[in-house]
Specification:
Keywords: Oxidoreductase. This is SDR family NAD(P)-dependent oxidoreductase. It comes from Nocardia amamiensis. InterPro entries: KR_dom, NAD(P)-bd_dom_sf, SDR_fam. The protein has about 300 residues and is of the alpha/beta class. Helix content is about 50%, strand content about 15%. It has a seven-stranded parallel beta sheet, with helices on both faces. A two-stranded parallel sheet has the order 7-8. Helix 7 links the parallel strand 5 and strand 6. The longest helix has 22 residues. The radius of gyration is 20 Å and the shape is globular. The C terminus is likely disordered.
């Protein structure tokens, strides 16, 4: 690290921190949530609506979002949009603005996972799809609403994952995407602070959603990948638990939330843990066997040169 960077860090850390904006009460506020038709997004939409917020449920599955809205009332708006479609998301945010006149909170929640594959054998289109939804989709969601967030001195939440700092073998596009979302949220937090608004990053471990069950339970290789997680990191939380964590983070304007809390030590100590962990994984015969099995399955559709065993 250069002397100039060290000096800058010393000056920044020595200055007294500016007070963070007051707590955010969602009553009578307008909240945008992507991926709101199912899972965490649905649970959060229901919770915030019950707390008095007007909620815009954005989802590619309009029928699913509409089913959620029917359990609410006139303060719910359903907008069909694909987060990877930049023009479509700009239009979706405009519809929210036209309906409610303002936007106070944005939760960029929509995301997907790829099927297990190594970098060598994956279909490049699968990589592009995950990045397009999980990373570019976050930008497409947040960017057109930022003037509203600044005007309202509101709050943005980007949903990352403990996958941002966990090993990524067999599912690297997801880990890459969530690490990118983390950095996006950190940058946004600092930038919005200059204008009195806030942003935070949400990190989840294993949440019991349909996506999780399809990835880790119903797919043999996915289950074996999940099986590498030690206790207590393999403990699951419900979508309600995840929604509670998000809602509490919004109320506090939290820079980061981690759920379940078992992942907090890993998040804080990742720089040391990952050096040791990576060294062990590259020598673990269980991991080697799993990688071979993933490549054997993928090679049926995408021929590759067999790895030496």
């Amino acid at each position: 690290m250069s002397a100039g960077v060290v000096g800058l860090l010393r000056r920044v850390l020595s200055r007294p921190a500016q007070p963070v904006a007051d707590r955010l009460d969602v009553r009578d506020r307008v909240v945008v949530i992507t991926g709101a038709g199912t899972g965490i997004g649905r649970a959060l939409a229901e919770k915030l609506y019950a707390s008095g917020a007007s909620v815009a449920l954005i989802d590619i599955d309009e029928a699913a979002a509409a089913a959620v809205a029917r359990s609410m009332g006139e303060r719910a708006l359903v907008v069909r949009a694909n987060v990877s479609d930049r023009i479509g998301m700009r239009q979706a945010i405009s519809r929210v603005r036209e309906r409610f006149g303002r936007i106070d909170v944005v939760v960029a929640n929509a995301g997907v996972v790829p099927e297990p594959a190594t970098i060598r054998t994956m279909n490049p289109g699968d990589f592009d799809r995950v990045i397009g939804i999980n990373v570019t989709g976050v930008f497409n969601t947040v960017h057109p609403a930022l003037d509203d967030i600044v005007a309202a001195k509101g709050h943005v939440v980007v949903v990352s994952s403990a996958a941002a700092f966990a090993p990524g073998m067999g599912g690297s596009p997801y880990m890459v995407s969530k690490a990118a979302v983390e950095q996006f949220g950190r940058a946004l937090r600092v930038e919005l602070a200059a204008v009195g608004a806030t942003a935070g990053v949400a990190y989840f471990g294993v949440v019991d959603t349909a996506m999780t069950r399809g990835t880790l339970d119903e797919d043999e290789l996915g289950a074996d990948l999940g099986g590498l997680l030690p206790w207590p990191l393999n403990q699951r939380i419900t979508v309600r638990d995840a929604a509670d964590s998000l809602a509490e983070g919004i109320a506090r304007r939290a820079p980061r939330t981690v759920a379940p809390p078992q992942w907090e030590p890993y998040a804080l100590l990742r720089g040391v843990i990952n050096v040791v962990l990576d060294g062990r994984l590259v020598r673990d015969p269980r991991v080697h066997d799993l990688i071979h099995r993933i490549e054997q399955r993928r090679s049926a559709g995408h021929p590759v040169t067999p790895l030496p065993r």
